[in-house]
Design brief:
Elements: E1 15-19, H1 23-29, H2 34-55, E2 59-66, H3 74-97, E3 101-105, H4 113-126, E4 133-140, H5 142-159, H6 169-173, E5 186-189, E6 208-210, H7 221-232
Parallel strand pairs: 1-2, 1-5, 2-4, 3-4, 5-6
Helix pairs in contact: 1-2, 2-3, 3-4
Amino acid sequence: MEKRTAESFEKLPRHVAVIMDGNGRWAKKHRLSVPRGHRQGTETLREIIRHTDDLGIGALSLYAFSTENWSRSEEEVGALMQLILDFFASEIDELDERNVRILILGEKDRLPQRQRETLEEAERRTGNNTGLRLNIAINYGGRAELARAARMIAEKVKSGALAAEEIGEETLAAHLYTAGQPDVDLLIRTSGEMRLSNFLLYQCAYAEFVFPETLWPDFTVADYDRALDVFAHRQRRFGGR
């Protein structure tokens, strides 16, 4: 099946967020190790990033590793950390050539040194690019992000740089990792699970949600296009009628 073009959609979201769920269940289904499931999931990831860029969507946020994922087995965490290195080693040249700008959401300080340096180099190398904003959430938690923003604002109030009565929604948004980007229009979570799992809690306030049953490694560009079609036919009222 040929990939669809932007003109074939009635409307497209400005910002898509994806919770890439189901790698472990895919591995179990195929009698493979969980790390093999995660590696297969990166193949899906490459295609979805390319297609998002081809469609001209402005921002794509991916939930790669949450603050809660550290509780998983040492083998699985180690495999996920290795995938960070492998993904950027194989993809950074193409992403940069495509004018993609990479932003890491989350606390990089807790990551191993090689992974942290790899992520920081990806941000530095693509920092002046003006195309797709590719947000990759690694060691990320939505509540932690909001607490971080509150601390930053509190420091400005304490120093006199900001008055408490000046604090509003725009102030908070300006101190999130995604500052300057539009809120999420469409959130996709694969594998049929129906929860946010602490992902972009503020940014998803008025997002449309789509929950395909497909496990992430089996999620195709055609599946993605179907989710975009669902979004295109939703009536978004933002609290109005």
